Amino acid sequence: MPALLIGDEAPDFEVETTDGPIRFHDVIDGSWAVLFSHPKDFTPVCTTELGMTAKLKDEFAARGVKVFGVSVDPIEDHRAWIGDIKDTQGVALNFPLIADPDRKVATAYGMIHPNANDTLTVRSLFVIGPDKKIKLKIEYPASTGRNFDEVLRVIDSLQLTAKHQVATPANWKAGEDVIIVPAVSDEEAKEKFPGGWKTLKPYLRIVPAPK
Ligand code: BEZ
Fold first, then answer.
1. Ligand 1 pocket, mutate which of 36, 37, 38, 40 (most atoms under 8 A from CB)
2. Would you call 46 a catalytic residue per the annotation?
3. Active site annotated at which positions (predicted)?
4. How far is the CA of 38 from the centre of ligand 1 (A)?
């Protein structure tokens, strides 16, 4: 199956989760969503990642993002593992964890990289827009826990650039200046950014982030 790419429609699926059965497209309809895989239940890095995601519930909610974890373990394992997350991370799981023992989600999203491991997923993360298109994908190996501050940062960029004809520079954080995209002429920019901008090069125009 060809790899899913940015701009592709996020595949739909029906699965069991720790919050009950879902059809993915129904529950994400009109919302931003994050779907992220972790290789295996009852493993140390995954335990910290799920705890961190639960701690960031309000941050995801403030951005209107619905979060879903997935692993190729069965629902009974997920349910048994939840207690460990609470015990060790000090926070209860507060988002649905998808059980994918037949790997239909992992396969549809290309989360299994056979040269890394032919049965477990890597740490894939997809940000999906309200139009159900993939806006961003990030992949980490099993041994490296993700930086969830970076996940929130890229969501801020994706949501801003979806609304305005701007791009965000290296290491940008919400509230910092942005770049007017080259497709916008200076004439158009005068209307869109009446407060003005700084031209460092004709193709590099810096402007305060639109509200
Ligand atoms: C972990 O989450 O700690 C882990 C999972 C699979 C392989 C290596 C580490």
1. 40
2. yes
3. 46
4. 8
- Nearest C-alpha neighbor of 73 from the set 44, 113, 115, 105: 105
Q: Which of 6, 8, 5, 73 is nearest to 42 (CA)?
A: 73
Statement: residue 85 has pLDDT above 90:
yes
Atom of ligand 1 lying closest to residue 47 CA: 2
Task: Name residue 15's beta-bridge partners.
Answer: 22
* Cα–ligand 1 centroid distance for 152 (angstroms): 23
132: which residues sit within 8 A by CB, 6+ positions away? 9, 10, 25, 28, 29
Query: For residue 58, is it left (φ>0), alpha (ψ between -120 and 50) or beta?
Result: alpha
Could you give the CA distance from residue 98 to residue 102 in angstroms, rounded to a whole number? Answer: 12
Count the Cβ atoms, other than its own, within 10 Å of residue 68. Answer: 24
Give the mean pLDDT of 168-190.
Answer: 97
- 54 C-alpha to center of ligand 1: Å? 19
Of the candidates 4, 46, 112, 134, the residue annotated as catalytic is 46
